[in-house]
Every structure is written in C-alpha cells, then in structure tokens.
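Practice problem: Cadherin domain-containing protein
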Amino acid sequence: MDYFQTWDHGLRSDNEVLKMETSCKKFSFLVTFLLVARCHGAMEKGKGKDMSLLSFTHHLYNATINENSAPRMYVEMPVKMGIQLTDPLWDITYNIVAGDDDDFFQAEALSVGDFCFLRIKTRSSNSALLNREVRDSYTLTVEATESTFELQAKTKVFVQVLDTNDLKPLFYPASYNVNIMEDTPLKSSVVKVSATDADIGSNAEFFYSFTSRAHPFSVNPFTGVVTLVKKLNHTRMQRYDLTVLAEDRTKKMSGIQKFGNTARVTVNIQEMPKKSPVITPLPKPKVSADGNVDISIRVEAGVKPVESLHIVTGDPHQYFEIIPSGVQNSDFQVISTKRIVWSQSSFGLNLSLQAKDMSSPSFLSPITKIHIPANHYRPLNFLEDTYIVTLSEFSPPKTHVVKVSVISFHQNVTFNIKNNPDSSNFKINSRTGIIITTGKFDYERKNRYEFDVLANQGEAETHIVVKIADENDNSPQFRQTSYQATVDENTPVGSSVLKVVASDIDQGKNGFVTYSIASSGHLPFTIDSFTGIISTSETLDYELMKRRYHLRVWASDSGSPFSQVSECPVTITLNNLNDNIPLFERVGCNITIPLDLTVGNTIAEVSAIDLDELQQLQYFIESGNEPQIFDIDPVSGTIILKKQIPPQEGSFTLRVVATDGKHHSEASVVRVTVTNKGDHATVSCLETGIFKQMTDKLIESIKPILINQEEESFSDIHITNRHSPKIVMSVPSSIDVAENYQLNSTILQFKATDIDSGFNSKLVYAISTGNEDGCFAINMFSGDLRLICPLDRETKEFYILNITVYDLGTPQTSAWKLLAVNIMDVNDNPPVFDQPRYVIRVPENTEEDSVIFTARAVDVDTDLNGNVLYSFLTPTDTFRVDELTGEVIVTGPLDRENSLRHDLWIKASDQARLGPQLFSTINLVVILEDINDNPPTFVPKVYHIKVAEDVPLGTLLVWVESVDLDLGSGGLVTYNLKNTEGGIFHLDSSTGALTLERELDFERRPSYNLTVRAVDHGLPRSLSSSCFVEIDVLDVNENLHKPVFTEFVYEAAVMEDAAVATSVVMVSASDKDVGRDGVVRYHISDGSGLGVFSIDEETGVIRTVENLDREMVQHYWLSVYATDLGTEPLISWTHVFLEVLDINDNAPELSQPVYFASIPENMDKVTSVIQVLATDVDMSSEGKLSYQMLESHRTYFDVDPKTGTGNTV
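Answer key — structure tokens:
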C-alpha cells in the first residue's frame, strides 16, 4: 500500500489534495483488491484442475536419438521444449504418461530464468537397446505438474530413432550372365548389378567395385552399371568372369574393409559377322523440270566406316558426279552436272552404284541399280503428220513453201529433207524448218511433189505434199516462124492475101486461139479472128501507100489473169503497076543565050517525075530542033549547045517530051532567044508545082511508112517483152527490224513497175538470195515482205536480201534490188552458262581473296542487254562473286569440319533498261578437301569432377573426349597424361578413360589439376591440344561425430548500459573429428534476442549489437546451434539465457508538464498550496526521489523535498 501511496504523492491545492487523497485511497484499495483476487482466483482454479495457466510452448515436439544408444542419453531437440514460467512461484515436474510401452525413456525438468526445460533421456536400468529396424519412432505423452498451485499440462514428443550402420549390403540376384557382340561400342552398358542395404541414409550407402581389374570393364561404384572401357576381340577372349563387391561405405570409412557381399558376372563375347556396307534405303531420284537429277543416298557401314561411293555403270557420257552431303562418310548425293540429252535416253537412265569401306582389303556393297525415269521427256512429234501445200507454177526460185514445227520441250531440234527424186526441188533450213523452192515449176511437166522431212535425224518424221497449181503459162505457137506474101496494087477489096495458123497446148480456154493484127494505126488488111485469113480491106495504091507491110499477127488464148499472146511477123509487099504518066516540074521556060555561046555549054535542065518509078525516064526534043543546034541528054534532061548558033537565028522554040517507056508526058515548051555576044545567058521557067505535089504525095505515101515503122516499134507492146521491170525508187535499200518483230506481219511492201502490158507487165517477186534460213517470205504478186520465223539477232545480225522481180513475159526479164535488213537487238536472251551445275573441290586451307572459280555466262544480246553482272542468291559471308568478272573469291575462313560443302547459287543477269532484266542461275557446289588443320578439340575444355575420397580403386572418373574432324590419320587421336600425380590416376591412351589407381585423401590433398594432351597422327605434322581435369576430392570419410556443447543451457547477465559489441558470454562445443570435420562454427537461429546479440561463428562469443534497456526488456533467450565443416555437416543445439541488469539511467518525470493553483490574498502561511508528483522507472531509484524549487522562485513559495507539497514562505 505504501508503494502506491508514495507513487501518488505530489503538490496540489487543498481541494485537489482532498480529492487526490480520496482517489488514491480508492486506487490503493482497488489495486489491493485486484492482487488479492488474482491470488485467490488462481488457487481456486488449481483446486478445480483448470490448467489453462500452465501450458507447453508447443503441442508437439520432434526429437531424435540414435538406435543402440547407451543409457542416460538425452534426445535432441532444436527448439526449447518445456513451459514458460509466468509465475516465479511455480515448481514444475515432468513425467512420461504414455507412449513408452517398453519403458525406454525418462523425463527431467530443468528451470533456467523464466523457462522450465523438458529433457528426455534413456533409462539407465534398461538393458534393451533401441533398434530402428524394429521400431523407428515413439510418440511420448509428457505431463507437467506444478506443485504450488497444483496445475497440470500435457504435450506430445515424437522421438525419431536414427539409423546406425549395422547391416551389410546384399546382392539380388547374386550372379549375372550376359552376351555382347565384339563390336560393342565403348561406354556401352553391359549389365547392371544391384545390391540393397536395409540401413537408411548414409548407412545404406555402399560402393560397387571389381575384386580384380584384369579385364576391359569398369563398374560404376554408385549405380552398379558395368561399362565397356576397352575394345573387345573375340579371337583373343571369348568370355570374362567378373566378381563385383558391394562394400559398405561407412564401414570402409571407419576403417573396416570389405564389409559387404559379392556377385558373379559372366560376360560372353560373340563374334561379329563380316558385314559389307549396304546402300539403304533404295534412293529415289528427283528430276527437275529442266532435267537436272539429284539422288540422295545413305550407305550403312559394315565392318569399317564407308570410304567412298562410285558409279559402276550407266554413265558413259559422264553426266553425273558423286559428292558427300555430310561430314560423315555415310551420306552422299549423286547429281547431274551436265545437260542430259534425254532424247538419247528416252526410256531413262540406269545407274549402278557401289560403296566401299575402309577395310583392308575393302568390303564392297552389293551393286544397287537406280532407274532415273525420263518422265519429263516427251518424244518429238510434228504438229502435222502431213503438210499439203499448193504452189503456183509461176513461183520463182526461193519461194516460201511451208514451215514445219514439232511439239517438243527440246531446246535444239534440227531438220533435214529425206532424199528422193522430188526432194531436189526443195530446200529446208535445218534450224527453222522453213522449206523453200530451188527452181521453177511446170505444171504440164509435173504437177505434184512428195517428200519426207526428218527431225533430229529421224526422231520424228512428217510427209510433205506440194501441189503445183496450173497457170496460163503456155502461149499459142504459130506453125511458121514468119509469113510473106505479095499483092498487086489496085487489087479488089476483100481479096485474100494469106492464112496464118497457130495452136496452144493448153486446154480449154487457155488453148482456144484467136487471131488479130497488132496495129494501132490504119491498115489496108484485116484478119479473120478464128481462121487467121488475112485479106485486103481497101484499094491498094503503090504510089500513095506503103509499098511493104510488116504485120504482127497475134495469136491469143483465152486464159486468165491474162491471155497468152504469141506474135508472128507477116510481110506483105505491094506490086507496083505502071499506071502514071511522067510530069515536068517546070514548063514555059524562056532562055537567052549570047550568040557567042560556046558549043557544049548547058543551056537548061528539064526534069520530069514518074510516080510509078518502074522505068528510067527518057527525054527527047519532040520538035523545034530541026537544025540540030541543040541536044538533050535522054537520062538527065540537060539541054546543051550542040553547034554554033548561026548568026541569023534569033530564037528557037523547043518541045521536050519525057517517057517512061509506056506513057509520054505532055510536051514542055522551051523558048531560046539569041542575044548579043558577050551577054549573059538567062533562064526563066514556070514552076508547075508538080514537085511539091509529088513531094506531098511522097510524104503522104511515106507517112504510112513512118506510121508503120512506129507500129513496127510499138505495135507489139502486148506480145513482145521489150521492157524489164523497174523497182520503184521509194523502196528503201536498208530497213531496221526488231528481232521480236511480230510473225506473219508485213515488214515492207516491195513495188516495181513494168511498162509492158499483159503477161509482159505481170510481175512476180522472189527472194533470190540472202534468205538462207527462210525467215522472210515475199508475196509473189503483191510484193509484201513478211516475217515468217522468229528472228535471232544473236545468230544473224543482218540479212542482205536480193529481192528479184520477174515479169511473166517471153523472154522473161527481171530486176533486183539488194535490201539490207538490220536486225535490231531486243533483250530476248538471258545470260547462258555452259552447265547447269558445277562441282569444284578446293582445299579447306585456301587463303582469303583466292579465286576458286570463275562463272562465265554469255549473253549474246548487245549493249546493256548483253552486259552481264553476277551476284549470289545464296547468303554467305564465306564467298563473294565479282559482279563483273564472275570470279568467286574466298572472303572468310573455310572449314571442312564445320561445313563440308557450300551450295552456292550464282545469278547472272543482264542490265536491260527496257523491259524486264533476264537472268540465269547455276548451282556451284564447293566441296572442301580435308587438310589436317584441326587439332583434337576437347569438349569441354575443362572437366570439373567431384570425387569422394573413399571411392574404390579402378573407378572410372571421367571420359576425356576430343573431336578431330579431320579425315584419315589426321582424325586418329591418342591421349597422354602429363602428370599422373604419383600414379594416383591413369589415362588410357586410346579411349581417354581416366581411372583412379591409388586412394584419395581429402585431408592430404583436396584437389588435383590434371593436364591431358590429345595428339592426332596427321601429316605433314601432327596437331595437339590440351584439356584440364579439375578434380575436387570430397571429404566424406571422417565426419563421424557432431559438435557437443559443454552446457545444455547457458546463463549470463549484462548491464543495460553495456556498449555495443560488449562480450556477454561464450558458448563452446567440441567435435571429436579432425580436420574440417572437427572445425566448429556457431550460429544464432532463434530467440527473443535475435538481432540484439551476435555470435562469433568461430569463437562462440556472444556480443551485443545494439543498446540495451532493462526498462524495455529485462532478459533475452537465444537458440544457438553449432555445426562442423564436414561434407555433410552435423549440428548440435543449446540455449542461452541473458539477463539485463539495471542502472540509474532514467531521470524522474513529473506527472504533469504544468501545475495550476490559487490561494486567497492576505493569508498567512499556507502549508499546502499544491501537490506535485514525480516517478522514476529505474529500480535503483525507488524511494529515493527528492523535490526542490529554483532559487529565483523561493520569494513567496517553496516545496517539501520529500513529499513534493508546495507551501508559502
């Protein structure tokens, strides 16, 4: 009661003091009541067996104990097992009330601080031992009894009986018998032996090992799998008898050797049959649309690996090549590298393949026959079985007949004409199949031609029938080449002169002959059109008409398109009759002559004209010359002075007459007057005009002659072929034609003229030369030049066509003109490679920038159309192709072992600007030839293995494996170990098996670093590489004891003002093991002091890690465990109770921050103005508080130092 009264003391007013006292009394009474009630309530509950105040920390605890444990051995528990002492007056005891039927266990109580521990141990009086194999657990019911208040509580403890190694492993079955082939691969599992141990955990562990190692086998010490580690040979050994020991591992660890049992293993080695390689399964050829063949082949190895595959028969043209398709020599590919002429193998190809292995002598596989069908091949066939063509017999030589074509996928087809009597008149272009004529035709001589055309020398055949169409090509023929006749002038009109006769061998209208006189002028003759009789049509006059008529008589048939006309010359001559009298040109002549005119001088000349001109005119003086003074020349009519004129004669009158012998002219009077001597003679006559008249008549008579001459020149225009055809000047001499010009379309119309008429002007056109391939044809009559077969500039860049135009006259005339046809390039040709596929072999050590192949594609187009650029279609960083030269260049390292072959697709494309660019591709297969460039490669480079130090000798630790992808001796590897570490390890030189030869000791050496070297046998020098084997030896054979604490529970105290890191207590545990197994480490796992304290894991010293405050926490519990550093650490537990000791570290605290009081004025001293109250949480300050007021405030008031009551001074 004093405690609570003291705690409530303070300075207050009187009223407050009264109130405070009342409330304190009430409070004190209340507290006292509560304490008393609490004690009495507990007693009443104890009497009623209410156990709720007494309880274990857990309803169930898990504990462990070893079987066969000695008496008074405590079970182990990682947590605090017991009851928290909430009342310091409690006295607790523990008893096992159930679960211990065999009376093995006993319970104890141990109180530390505020906790009462429950401890269970084996009884000392019981001679029986715990046996896990009989019973491995107990569930104990423990009752706690508190004697002061008679409280009770129960809990359960599950005790697990731990195994100890007290049993041997046993085999089942105890013997094994297996058969294996002598070619069984290394590392193969032969048999698995099996043993069991009834112990559990590490006590059930055991090792398998051979009792003898003189055999090619190894047993896995853990699994019992027997493995083949060396190659077998049936000839040397047919059977192995092995003994396998299953040895208890823990016993061996503790020094007890061969604690276990054995099993017998019999391995029978069976001889391997001699097996040849086999090509399997039957390969199926793949034939592409363009005829390329690919056959994938797999060869199953026999005794030895496959060395090669080759074609035995079936490839005489060497179309195929065999290349490997994988790094291992079991997969091959038969590919075609040349274009196969399927027409020569229309039923397909039959290849015989055989494989060879690496045995000595080699084993050969059975020959495998592969049929490559020519399914894509279609035999040649002409579009038509028979071509029937009709040609005009007017057709000139080189006339287009027909173009034959075949149905085929063949790229190259050639044509030829099969010789027979009719074939000589025709010619075929071997490439285009165009047939042209070689000569002229005559329907009347032969009107039908038949011959055969062959494709590819007889692969296909067609029949050609050429019918010659009859034309009006025969003109009528006269019986005589010419006719002559005479007729007298003045013959009566209608008189027959002569008859012409002509015949025509043509039939029908073509042979019906009519006659006519070809004359455009007037003729005195007519001809009967049907009889050919020529008669006069008017009176003939020799003097006024033509004296001779040259008639051109036509004989015409009735054919079409023109009549054929023949002409025959007919000459009709007029007979002249003497029916005209001579006539003088001048009459009435007056002549003067001098008297002294010399005799013999010409006085005058008289002349007469006789139109008949039959006889020579004669002149004579009829009268007036009787004196014979004058004379006249009878022929010329010249009058001369014959005698000297007598002086007496003054004049003379002469009458001169002209006669033609039949008729006399009228006399012409000539008057001669004699004049004086010395005078000049004069002549004066009167012109009769007869000369002009006769001239006019002569002109009139000559005019028909001129006209007749003109007719002679032009009247035969329709029957005489006088003029040659003339080619029109506008026809060009050169034209440009694109090579893709549309077929059967007109390129140019050729025009010519002929001023003749009829057939003489009828023109036909022909290409006489320059059209050897027959790609051009000209319409015979219209002159339209057409293109009838595709042009190919790359085959022929230009043509010089000799276009000849013929008329159909007789004789036939012609004209010609050279036409230069320039074929203009179009981009119609892709670049072309020689082969569709190339296979090259290059060493794998070929340096970078080396040219290994040059792709050559030819584009026969011109300019950019023929400019070829190369590129790869295959993505690759190893090669590049020069776009201009096509050189394939190595750009990266080659590695046959990484990639045996490279399938590259090269594209050659032109650079056409108009239209799409064309391209071609080839497949370049680059086979890399092996070079010993690869040292053996370990995978992995570093082997990390962990080996228990107690594994038996002969254990196969690891297979070190290297891969050398080189072929032959370059891929044959041997191994060696640089350091065997004193013979502890052994490495098989051929297999790479690393085995243990001497026992390991972790304490002596915990790890090994071995260097393994692998060397190949390549030439010219061997290559090598190394790997490292890091062996960690596992410590498994000495951790037999767990750490043991010196105390079950530790108690310590620490001042609450202890500095951080202050050492409080040291726990200690010992481990009987040595080495790491005996090294102890300490750890805090649980408890209220977790985080407040730390423990040095090596020393076990527990230190503070933060400031303590007893007023907050008065004590702490820690759960500490100790563990060793064994491979499988063992653990022990303990508990630590830490009490915090108090110091005076807290100042008193007033109950209120401000106190208020009031007193009346003018009063004397007041003993109690106010009561102040202070408290101090430190236990050491209890009852030691004192009060005082500041000196400056003591003028009127003061405070009682013990009670805290304020009063006036």
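Discussion: The longest strand covers residues 151-162. Students who identified this feature from the tokens alone can consider the problem solved.
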